[in-house]
Amino acid sequence: MLKARHHWFLFPFFKHHAFRLIRKHFATVCLCGEKQQWNKSVLLVANHISWWDGFWALYLNQKVFKKRFHVMMLEEQLRKHRYFNYCGAYSVAKKSRSIVQSLHYTNELLSDAGNMVLFFPQGEIQSMHVKEFSFEKGLTKLLEQQNDKFELVFTAAVCDYFSNKKASLWLYYKKMSFQELSKKSLSEQYSAFYAESLEQHIRKKS
């Protein structure tokens, strides 16, 4: 597998480029979640809806968590776009024994309170209109191996144009309780969070 690196020049340039693109293409960006201290590492779970997802998560991390950014990517994609490897991306190969190695590496990253790991448990890009989620097993295995080392945070992106030429972006996020995962599956929990975020969004704009 390819482990994450943070190149002294490429990573700062990537962050600057990501912020510039967001400012250029979105009228406003609103962060919606409780303010708190993030003393532990963060496992950020997001739905995978577009090319923008990693840029949005990087923005959220810089503004809220302020951790060292990491993201798990499919190995075939990471090898095509190797510059992401120098910006915190590491690889996972589906249907391969190396998945265990990737999950073990994720565990190592989350053992450091200064890290954030972005995880897309859907395993592929799906429509933003999907409301019932079915996650692959990797994240559940990861959570089974952890206890109180990190914070589990769900995030969802909502875009609306209304009367503007450019879309506005709302990034909803919420710290989750590990105890709740014993009552419902991870995908059920995320589906409920996503529905709650959409309801909150509609109430704001009504």
Q: Keyphrases for this structure?
A:
206 residues; seven-stranded mixed β-sheet; alpha/beta
What's the count of strands? 7
Strand percent estimate: 15-25%
Oligomeric state of the chains?
A: single chain
Report the average pLDDT across residues: 90
List segments where confidence is low: pLDDT < 50 over at least 5 consecutive residues: none
Structural class: alpha/beta
The largest beta-sheet arranges its strands as: 1-7-6-2-5-3-4
Q: What is the rounded distance between the termini? A: 48 Å
- Could you describe the largest sheet, including whether it forms a barrel? 7 strands, mixed
Helicity level: 25-40%
Order of helices and strands: HEEHEHEHEHEEH
Rounded to an integer, what's the Rg over CA atoms?
A: 16 Å
